[in-house]
């Protein structure tokens, strides 16, 4: 029986425009059709995990507005337990403004709104209610004191924690020993370790530094090259399928949601990463964040 997955994180509504090239500072570019779809790193990871048949509970805060209502309705449709999602009467739901260029690369500006008001103690009820084999999945689009509290509380209850340290920001040293897995991309790995990651050797050095800081397992995602796993005793590159990327928005979120599902199913790390790479490679062939998350049958195929 797979364990539960508790995602603690952000929910946004993404406002997306495709352009031939991303605008430079001061530049205006004419884009294609505007489209809106649900996003936010926490919500994307929760939806990715749910579509891959994970048993998901999501802790988040939305505003008392139509965006928040639509987001929560969407989570329910995906079969996610929304009992611990709070509505903030004083702040609007999070919004992200996203440009995607012809190569599928993006730039994103987030107005966090209610996400910035998810308080540390507001995570506790969910943490006390979940089962002992629950995996806790956290990112950095909510306040850092809430992140550190959720992680240390989860670890003190013996729960395994996956931290996706995105968007990149410095973290307190005491957080690292609580992590079963950390999943930075190359930029985030460099920010956390000071080591520029541009090949397997530097990925290995950055991973070793994260082990020295106390993390049990390090997974550095490498975009179209796949992901690098280091357990402290072994390391390997797990490649991803070559695909034509249309929009890489939330590739990392899909990877993390899928990883959590496979680990909750007690699959070995390398196996779980191969599953996550497969899911994420499908997500980049489609536009949007939650809109791009694959279902289990697609990944199995
Ligand atoms: P993003 O910020 O775009 O959501 P990220 O920077 O957090 O992503 P990446 O390392 O770019 O994370 O991608 C995460 C995973 O998604 C990779 O490990 C890989 O499995 C998959 N992936 C990303 N880009 C591609 C691509 N162009 N082709 C195939 N797989 C990809
Ligand atoms: O990781 C992608 C997400 O980052 C988008 O959905 C956007 O909302 C921002 O949070």
Reconstruct the topology from this structure.
Blueprint lengths: L3 E5 L3 E7 L15 E6 L1 H11 L3 E9 L2 H12 L7 E4 L5 E7 L5 E6 L12 H6 L5 E4 L5 H13 L3 E4 L17 E2 L3 H8 L6 H14 L3 E5 L5 E4 L4 E4 L12 H14 L4 H15 L12 H5 L1
Parallel strand pairs: 1-4, 1-8, 2-6, 4-5, 8-9, 9-10, 10-11
Antiparallel strand pairs: 2-3, 6-7, 11-12, 12-13
The structure holds adenosine-5'-triphosphate (ATP) and alpha-D-ribofuranose.
CA radius of gyration: 18 Å
CATH-defined fold name: UDP-N-acetylmuramoyl-L-alanine:D-glutamate ligase
Amino-to-carboxy terminus distance: 23 Å
Percentage of residues in DSSP E strands = 15-25%
The averaged pLDDT comes out at 97
Enumerate the strands of the largest sheet in spatial order, edge to edge or round the barrel.
5-4-1-8-9-10-11-12-13
Instruction: State the helical fraction.
Output: 25-40%
Tally of DSSP β-strands: 13
